[in-house]
Amino acid sequence: KKHKFWETQPVGQYKDVGDTNLPEGPIEPPTPLSEVKQEPYNLPSAYEWTTCDMDSEETCNEVYLLLKNNYVEDDENMFRFNYSKEFLTWALRVPGYYKSWHIGVRAKGSKKLVAFITGIPARIRVNDKVVKMAEINFLCVHKKLRSKRLAPVMIKEVTRRVHLEDIWQAAYTAGVVLPTPVATCQYWHRSLNPKKLIDVGFSRLGARMTMSRTIKLYKLPDSTVTNGFRKMELRDVPAVTRLLRNYLGQFVVAPDFDENDVEHWLLPHEDVVDSYLVESPETHEITDFCSFYTLPSSILGNQSYSTLKAAYSYYNVATKTPLSQLMNDALIVAKQKDFDVFNALDVMQNEGFLKELKFGPGDGQLHYYLYNYRIRNALRPSELGLVLL
Ligand SMILES: COc1cccc(CC(=N)NC(=O)c2cccnc2OC2CCNCC2)c1
Fold first, then answer.
1. Are 137 and 172 in contact, with CB atoms under 8 Å apart?
2. What integer pLDDT is reported at residue 75 of this predicted model?
3. Which atom belonging to ligand 1 lies closest to the Cα atom of 362?
4. What share of the chain has pLDDT > 70, as a percent?
5. Residue 294: per-residue pLDDT
6. pLDDT of 1 above 70
7. Alpha carbon nearest to ligand 1 atom 13, residue
8. Residue nearest to atom 6 of ligand 1 (CA)
9. What does the mean pLDDT of the chain come to?
10. 3 confidence band (pLDDT: 50, 70, 90)
C-alpha cells in the first residue's frame, strides 16, 4: 500500500477530497494531556532517542554533517542541500522554541547520529483563525538506514512531543505527494551565474544560444535602481511588521508574525538571511520590503565546483515600488553577494515577476501540508503566504 502510515494519521485522506460536508478546521480534538503517551515511542533495539542541543557546537556540527551527507537531493541526485550551522541554529532556536522538539536518533554502540527531525512553534493563520502549530522540518534518515521504517516512528515521536506542549496542528512541506496537499507549488530559478550553472549541469544552454549570448541575457546592473532601497535595520522592525501583517492578511494561509517574530526571521543575518526595504526619501515611510535566505547545495560529482550558492525568495511586500522592480533589485543584490542562482516558489504574488525577471521553471514541485487541520479545498499557490525553510 502506498501510504500505509499516512492513512492512519489525522490528515486529509484521499477518500475525503471534495467532500464539502466535512467542516474546515481540526480533524481530531485535542487529547487531555494526561492521556498523551508519556514515554517515547520504541525504536529498533540498536537505536536510541537523543535531544539535539543546538547550542552545543559539537551537536550542531553532528546535525550539520548528517544533513550535509544525507538530506534532500534534487530529482537527478546532482545536488544536495547543505544548510550551514549558522542557518540551522537560526532556523531552530526561534522565539519560544522547545529543545525537546529537536530530535535525534543515535546508534547505541557508536553513538553516531543517524537520523533527525525538528519542530518549531509558529502561529499560522488559516482564513480567519490563528492556530498554534508546529512547523516540522529537517526529517533526515542516514542513507544506510533507509526503508527501515524509521521515518514513521520519528514523525510519531515529534507529534507526541508537540502534543505534550498542548499543540495539535502542524505544517510541513515535501517534494513528494502524500495525503493530501493543501497546496502544490512550482519552483522557479533565476540564473545569476549562468556559466557555472551550465558547467555543473544545473541549467542547460538554450537551443540556438551561445554561452556569451546566455551570459548577456542574464546580465544585471551593478547597483540597485530603486530610490531609498537599503538594508533592513533593528529600528525598522515595527514598520516592517506593520507592512508584512497587512500584506500577509490577503492570503488564506500565512504566518501571524509579531515584532518579535519579525526581529528573528527578517533582520539581516550574514550568510543566513538578507532583507531590504524601500524608505521613501521624502516621507521616510517604509513602503516596500524584500528578503531571501541563503541555502547552498553541495554539487555531487563535479571536479571544478563543490558548492552551488543559492538564494531563496522569502517574504516580499510591494506597496509603492512595482514588485518586478523590487525583486529585480533583490536579484542585483544577490548577484553582488556572489549567489549563483535565485530560487522562488510561485506562492503569494510571485507569479507576477517570475517570467518578467527571466526565471525558468524548475523540474519539481513543493507540496504544502497541514496536520490535523482540514481546509475545504486545496489552495492555489497565490493563496499561500507561508514560506518554510
Ligand atoms: C539545487 O539544489 C537542490 C538540492 C536539493 C533539492 C533541490 C530541488 C528542491 N527540492 N528544491 C526545493 O524544494 C525548493 C525550490 C525552490 C524554493 N524552495 C525549495 O525548497 C525549500 C523549502 C522547503 N525546504 C527545502 C528548501 C535542489
1. yes
2. 95
3. 15
4. 100
5. 99
6. no
7. 366
8. 74
9. 97
10. confident
What residues flank ligand 1, with Cβ below 6 Å?
72-74, 79-81, 173, 175, 187, 295, 297, 308, 310, 312, 343, 345, 362, 364, 366, 388
286-323: per-residue pLDDT in tens? 999 999 999 999 999 899 999 999 999 999 999 999 99
pLDDT at 100: 98
DSSP, res 379: B
CA 47 to centroid of ligand 1, rounded, Å:
29
H or E element at residue 286: strand 286-294
Q: How confident is the model at residue 20 (pLDDT cuts 50, 70, 90)?
A: confident
CA of 354 to the centre of ligand 1 (A): 17
Q: Among 275, 267, 295, 264, which Cα is nearest to 84's?
A: 295
Nearest C-alpha neighbor of 137 from the set 113, 162, 112, 106: 162
User: Residue 65, SS3?
Assistant: helix
Cα of 320 to ligand 1 centre, how many Å?
A: 30
- List, as own/partner pairs, every contact residues 316-320 make where C-beta atoms lie below 8 angstroms and the sequence separation is at least 24, other chains included: 316/289, 316/290, 316/291, 316/348, 316/350, 317/243, 317/244, 317/246, 317/247, 317/288, 317/289, 317/290, 318/288, 318/290, 318/349, 319/243, 319/247, 319/287, 319/288, 320/278, 320/280, 320/287, 320/288
Which residues belong to the active site? 389
